[in-house]
Amino acid sequence: MKPRKSGSIPQADMFRLSLDQMLNQRHALYKLAGQIDWNAAEIKFGELYSEEGRPGIPIRLMVGLHF
């Protein structure tokens, strides 16, 4: 089964830092994540998911783990 689409706009919380504020933005992997065309990856790898069965793991997670 294809994974659900993740929300593109996280809800702001006054008392919590967002993940991008906690991470080192000068790190090579952080910069690489900003250069990857995630929409193209979701379209290309989304064809490999079935419409039936267990819900899929998000494509962005799987691509990120492979890097």
Task: Give a verbal description of the structure.
The protein is mainly α and 67 residues long. Helix content is 43%, strand content 0%. The chain is built from 4 helices and no strands. 1% of the residues are buried. The mean pLDDT is 81.
Straight-line N-to-C gap: 23 Å
**Percent helix range:** 40-55%
Q: How many helices in DSSP terms?
A: 4
| Main sheet summary | none
What characteristic shape results from the CA principal axes?
extended
Topology pattern, helix = H, strand = E:
HHHH
Beta-strand content: under 5%
Structural class of the secondary elements? Answer: mainly alpha
Radius of gyration using CA atoms only: 14 Å
Keywords:
4 helices; 0% strand; 43% helix
Describe the structure in brief.
Helix content is 43%, strand content 0%. The protein has 67 residues and is mostly helical.
Helices, strands, pairings?
Elements (H helix, E strand, L loop, with lengths): L18 H4 L5 H8 L2 H9 L12 H8 L1
